[in-house]
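pinging the channel bc i need a second pair of eyes. not urgent but kinda urgent?? the chain im working w is below, pasted from the shared doc
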Amino acid sequence: MEITEYIASLSEEGRLLAAAAEQAGPGASVPTCPGWQIRHLLRHTGMVHRWAAGFITERYTTPHPDGGEPDLDGDELLDWFRTGHRNLVRSLEAAPADLDCWSFMPAPSPLAFWSRRQLNETTVHRVDAESALGGPLTTVSADRAADGIDELLTGFHGRPKSRVRSSVPRTLRVRAVDTDAVWTVRISDAPPQTVRMTVPGGGDGGPGTEGGGERVDCELSGTAEGLYLTLWNRLPLAAVTLRGDRSVARLWTDNSAVTW
C-alpha cells in the first residue's frame, strides 16, 4: 500500500471508531476486550494517537514515553479522541517523505511505519467499538487486511517480545483465499519466523504440502479480512477454516496478544 492510502484509511477508521463509540455510549462493554468499556477504548486509542503524533511532529529519534490516559468521560472524552485523531492524520499528511524519527519495526521509512502502524491500531480498535454495538462490522478490503497480517506476523511477532513460543517446533500456515498470499509461521523456543509466499489462487489448502512443498502442522484459511481479525483475536477461530493440529492454532490465540 502507498503511504497516502494508509493515511486516508486511517482518517476513515478513526471517524468510524468515534461514531460507533458515540452510538454505544461510554459505559458500553467491549466484547472483544474483556473488562473494557467504550471509555477505556477511547482513552487508550486516543493516548496512542497522541504518542505516535509526537514522534512525527517532534522528530524524536529515541523512544519517548506516552502522555498517559486522561481523566475524561462522556462528550468531553469523545471530543478529546476526535481532536487527537485529526491531529495524527494531519501530522502524517504534513510530514516529509524523508521524515527521520524513531520506529520499532522494519519499514521502508519512518513515515511508512507510523502510517501503517496507526492504521492497523485504529482499525482493530474500530472493530472493538463496533463490537459494542452487536451489529455487522465495517469491511476491511482484502489488500488492506493482507498488509495488516504482514505487519502482525513479520513485524510484531518477529520481535523478541513475542510470547508465541513452543519447546517443540511447530509450523502454522495462514492462507488468504481471496488473495495470492500464503504465510508460513515457524514456531520454536525463539521468536516466530514468518515467510510470505505468493501462490496463485492461494494454494491448494490442507495441512500437508503447499506451493513450496513444505508440510505444516496446522493451516488457517479464509478471507484476508477474516484471518486478519482472527489473528488479532477479534474473531474466534471458528471464523476461519482450521485444518490439522488445533493445538497449534490455540498456541497462537493464547499467546499472541499485543499489549501496551
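so The mean pLDDT is 95. and The longest strand covers residues 170-176. — does that match what u expected or am i reading it wrong
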